[in-house]
Design the sequence.
């Protein structure tokens, strides 16, 4: 035993307390704090051994934090309710174990005896037990003094505070981890939200969501199942950690049916024996539906919630989390699907716009060009990049008429069209038809205009070429379907009408040249109108003779009928004309007409410098002969013409006539009208 | 179930562990076991190549934290490279990056840790 004065003893205790302060400040872990305090305690009160235990509230057990002079005791020691009640009596003091109270549990009792513990100091913070300080015998088996117990009390108070702080820090750390996990969950939801607006590939999106769901819910594996509208078997869009095994998941699986009937999700445990668990050969599952608005898309399935000690059941918080993820995923997938449809529709529209000959230009609400098709580029003779983004007033600055049409459409919100206008934006030779329509959005607001431009320059050239010969309708028919147009020379069946003014030479001799021209112009003007009315092709005018072809360059079933109608209307018109001429004291115009039907050779005939579309052959010659044989006001046709039209017209048979170049006489008929 | 596998090699003082698969309880335990065995042989610097582990859960993270704590007791270090963005985000949120380092490449990591 160390002999000392009271002053020395006091100084020793003071130095111990000073050291205690250092331990509390310097040590960073509870184990090192406890170890330091135990060493100090035993040294101060001259004890040979001791241990500090920490109490675990959840398991109502204690485990050793540190020990000195005693063999380490690694197993936790369970404490009974009786112990926990009785120990409270010693909350502010100590228990001398020599008394061996019977409420001490056997395991702990065994430890106390084997470790030769003499004093037990429960470490209470208010009413909460945090740990137990166990102290063995005093050096040389001396008895602990009151000062020793006082020192023990002071030091144990500090130890209690350290344990309390440790618990506090542990709780804070645990809460921090929980908050981190919550933050991770929120971040995951946020990321999925971002993915909704950025990832537009359904497969990629599903896989991304699945991986995040597996990670965030500590699942061991997962599966993304899509309902297939065309098959009774659902498609596994994505799976994770499920190996290579192939599952056949029918639509008729009960769990899936429950989802389709509005169930928000299911947690399946060992106590359930559903067909899905059997199918997947798994016990712990969580299944949620993928539902966007009213569309049922499929399911997300996760398996086995992991913990450090194995697998546990999924809980309602997991169900909420997975439901949130699946809802977002469903919306995202719906968006992706919509995007795919819109893209396809856009490509479809663009392919149509790209293939048509009409230039289509769209103008946005601020007047700028936001799209143009290939035909539009060709008509404007400019490339897309030089057109897009420019205001229409700039694009069409040379065409006030077009600007006016666009402005009118914008103001009136009605379609405006104009035809045959020079397109000065391109060149003076370009003639266009233009139609401008308002772009109306879903709310019926005007969002700009759509301009359709048709370059009809080429059509006009064709019309100018043909309009001298054929009616507008024939030209239009030819332009609508140019497969009918064969100008290169071919055999074809036609009906030919000839008219000739009887006695015109002698009549003209009595007239001034100007009067002759005026008379012929008046006559031909009326006759040609009738020719065009019945879609005849005016082949040629030779003096006072008119040659009209029906059936070239395009033919139809009623060619002969129209030829007869033309001739009849001509004769009637001449009769009307003669009445007028009579009032003007002018001699009548007397016309004979002949019509024949048969094979001719048609095509562009002539030299390189002068070429005309015409028909040649015997049929033409006979037609001319019939005309020559017709008296004034008479229409004479061949047997072939009569044969094709006798159901429609009335004929009078005339005496056969002999014509030049024909050995036999020809049957001829007079048309009654 | 898909297997989690690791490939271990040493580059000077640094043990490089390349993982393949889900970094969960199973994966984490495999890494921890390897690390602890290497610590017994005196190795204290570890580098995880997580290129083929694109999914991690909080159990996996908690095991990594245990490895970090163990390494701190031995004045060792843990680093990572080839992290998928989602894994990097998880490590950051779960606080791992305060006590361990994410490197841009193996070369950078070796230079820093050696």
Sequence:
């Amino acid at each position: 035993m160390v002999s000392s004065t009271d002053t020395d003893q006091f100084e020793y205790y003071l130095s111990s307390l000073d050291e205690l302060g250092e331990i509390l400040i310097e040590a960073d872990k509870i184990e090192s704090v406890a170890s330091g305090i135990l060493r100090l305690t035993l040294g101060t009160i001259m004890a040979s051994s001791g241990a500090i235990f920490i109490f675990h509230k959840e398991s109502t057990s204690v485990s050793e934090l540190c020990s000195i002079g005693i063999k380490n005791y690694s197993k936790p020691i369970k404490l009974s309710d009786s112990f926990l009640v009785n120990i409270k009596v010693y909350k502010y003091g100590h228990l001398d174990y020599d008394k061996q109270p019977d409420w001490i549990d056997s395991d702990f009792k065994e430890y106390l005896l084997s470790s030769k513990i003499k004093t037990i100091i429960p470490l209470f913070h208010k009413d909460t037990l945090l740990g137990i300080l166990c102290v063995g015998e005093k050096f040389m088996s001396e008895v602990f003094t009151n000062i020793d117990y006082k020192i023990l009390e002071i030091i144990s108070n500090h130890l209690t505070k350290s344990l309390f702080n440790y618990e506090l820090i542990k709780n804070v750390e645990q809460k921090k981890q929980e908050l981190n996990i919550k933050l991770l969950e929120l971040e995951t939801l946020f990321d999925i939200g971002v993915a909704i607006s950025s990832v537009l590939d359904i497969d990629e999106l599903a896989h991304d969501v699945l991986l995040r769901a597996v990670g965030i819910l500590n699942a061991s594996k997962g599966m993304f199942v899509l309902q297939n509208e065309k098959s009774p078997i659902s498609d596994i869009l994505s799976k994770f950690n499920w190996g290579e095994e192939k599952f056949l998941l029918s639509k008729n699986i009960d769990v899936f049916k429950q989802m389709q009937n509005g169930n928000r999700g299911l947690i399946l445990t060992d106590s359930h024996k559903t067909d899905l668990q059997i199918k997947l050969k798994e016990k712990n599952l969580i299944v949620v539906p993928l539902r966007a608005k009213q569309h049922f898309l499929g399911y997300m399935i996760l398996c086995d919630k992991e913990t450090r000690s194995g697998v546990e059941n999924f809980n309602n918080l997991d169900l909420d989390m997975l439901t949130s993820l699946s809802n977002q995923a469903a919306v995202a997938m719906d968006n992706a699907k919509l995007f795919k449809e819109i893209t396809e529709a856009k490509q479809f529209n663009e392919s149509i716009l790209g293939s048509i000959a009409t230039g289509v230009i769209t103008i946005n609400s601020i007047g700028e060009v936001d799209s143009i098709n290939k035909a539009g580029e060709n008509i404007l003779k400019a490339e897309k990049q030089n057109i897009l983004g420019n205001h229409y007033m700039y694009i069409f600055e040379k065409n006030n008429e077009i600007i006016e049409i666009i402005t009118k459409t914008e103001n009136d919100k009605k379609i405006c069209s104009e035809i045959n206008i020079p397109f000065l934006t391109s060149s003076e030779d370009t003639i266009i038809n233009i139609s401008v329509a308002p772009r109306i959005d879903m709310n019926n607001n005007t969002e700009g205009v759509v301009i359709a431009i048709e370059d009809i320059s080429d059509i006009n050239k064709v019309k100018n070429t043909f309009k001298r010969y054929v009616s507008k309708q024939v030209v239009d028919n030819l332009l609508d379907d140019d497969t009918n147009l064969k100008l290169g020379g071919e055999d074809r069946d036609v009906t030919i009408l000839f008219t000739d003014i009887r006695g015109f030479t002698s009549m003209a001799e009595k007239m001034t040249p100007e009067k002759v021209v005026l008379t012929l112009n008046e006559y031909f003007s009326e006759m040609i109108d009738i020719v065009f009315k019945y879609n005849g092709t005016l082949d040629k005018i030779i003096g006072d003779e008119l040659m009209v072809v029906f059936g070239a360059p395009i033919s139809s079933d009623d060619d002969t009928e129209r030829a007869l109608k033309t001739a009849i209307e001509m004769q009637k018109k001449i009769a009307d004309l003669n009445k007028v001429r009579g009032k003007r004291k002018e001699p009548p115009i007397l016309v004979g007409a002949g019509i024949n039907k048969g094979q001719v050779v048609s095509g562009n005939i002539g030299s390189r410098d002068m070429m005309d579309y015409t028909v040649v052959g015997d049929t033409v010659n006979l037609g001319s002969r019939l005309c020559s044989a017709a008296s004034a006001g008479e229409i004479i046709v061949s047997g072939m013409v009569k044969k094709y039209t006798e159901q429609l017209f009335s004929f009078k048979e005339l005496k056969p006539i002999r014509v030049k170049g024909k050995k036999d006489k020809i049957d001829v008929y007079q048309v009654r009208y | 179930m898909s297997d989690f596998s690791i490939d271990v090699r040493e580059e000077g003082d640094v043990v490089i562990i390349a993982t393949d698969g889900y970094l969960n309880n199973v994966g984490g335990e495999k890494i921890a076991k390897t690390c602890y065995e290497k610590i017994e042989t005196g190795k204290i610097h570890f580098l995880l190549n997580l290129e083929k582990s694109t999914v991690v859960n909080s159990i996996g993270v908690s095991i990594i934290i245990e490895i970090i704590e163990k390494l701190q007791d031995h004045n060792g270090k843990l680093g990572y490279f080839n992290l998928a963005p989602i894994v990097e985000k998880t490590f950051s949120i779960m606080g791992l990056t305060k006590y361990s380092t994410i490197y841009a490449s193996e070369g950078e990591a070796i230079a820093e840790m050696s």
In short: The mean pLDDT of chain B is 92.
